[in-house]
Amino acid sequence: MQTCIYLDNNATTQVDPQVVEAMLPYLTQYYGNPSSMHRFGGQVGKAVKTARAQVAALFNSEESEVVFNSCGTEGNNTAIRAALAAQPERKHIITTQVEHPAVLNVYKQLEKQGYTVTYLSVSRKGQVDMMELEASMTGNTALVSMMYANNETGVIFPVEQAGAIAKEYGATMHVDAVQVAGKIPLNMQDSTIDLLTISGHKLHAPKGIGALYIRKGFRFRPFLLGGHQERGRRAGTENVPGLTALGKAAELALEHLPNVKQEKKLRDRLEKTLLKTIPEIEVNGGGTERLPNTTNIGFKYIEGEAILLSLDQYGICASSGSACTSGSLEPSHVLRAMGLPYTILHGSIRFSLSRFNTDADVDRVLELMPQIVDRLRALSPFNSDQAEWLQGREEAVATSK
Ligand SMILES: Cc1ncc(COP(=O)(O)O)c(C=O)c1O
Ligand code: FES
Q1: Which domains does the chain have, with CATH numbers?
Q2: I need a labelling partner for 193 at 20 to 30 A (CA). Which of 32, 248, 364, 392 fits?
């Protein structure tokens, strides 16, 4: 199998070998159904309990507040629907312009069903403004839904403060924490958040397993109806190998949290050296609080996709935004919302690290990037003289839409 220097960990992560080891017995000998009456199934039930405790430890929550599901997308869909069902008389939702499609596309549908949605703007640095949130709140607001950190820029949002504002108005606070679990500590014990989503494949567990935190006492309405698994909050026979993997991944993430500064050191070295060695580049979301593993850099006058293809030829995996929208040629909705100039919008790429990256990985990128950028810029018909013209063209396209 082809391997690469993998710097696309916000898209998905390598499954930790210890996670594979933990889940394997539940794919082979322990295949019982945890709901069965017999002892064979009972053993498997114990694994579910252990995994729940491990995820609760990552959340710093009670075990009963953890519900396993299939992914971050399911968690977000479920949380949003549950928040609206809890207060059906309220018809207003507040979110941000830079959420993941697993949130934004739910709101698009809800708008068609009679809900009003306020999309909070972000600054040039990609940060939300709590004054704008406060000014948007009304007695009709059912839900404030905000990501903990943005998948493209890594910018961290003040979700606790947002939750406190939501509470003042009696609204539910939902947080998409898919990108932060394992990267910054979570503390649900002492939190204003009611519902919080994580996804296994972003923290070294496999794809297809996730968890939703549901604050004790929250009037929760399930999304999937059927059997009484997960205490009636998520029907469907449990994905035991998956949740065992997520439990182990959560345990390892918690252990690793004090060492996240190592990833940050690597990220900072990558970022600072690129800024020093390549002219006309900028860090998108720089100068505000960000995830320790993420850097999103705009290289003026060239296409992000061209940089990615060049890197790919050298066996380096990076990305130009979210994996699910990268098939389209539209520039990222996140960078667009930040009001970045045309040439940055089209020339941005993201490197996202994990605990498996090494100094040698960063060295290789630092060795290759100046020559890649030089070569692409030499071929590019654009330069700083046309930057103003390009910006004008972008604005003309935007207003004609
Ligand atoms: C911020 C954010 N939310 C939600 C998701 C969706 O998670 P999943 O792939 O588990 O459905 C992702 C994954 O890209 C994400 O980055
Ligand atoms: S589903 Fe992961 S980037 Fe979209």
Answers
A1: 5-10+259-400 (3.90.1150.10), 17-256 (3.40.640.10)
A2: 248
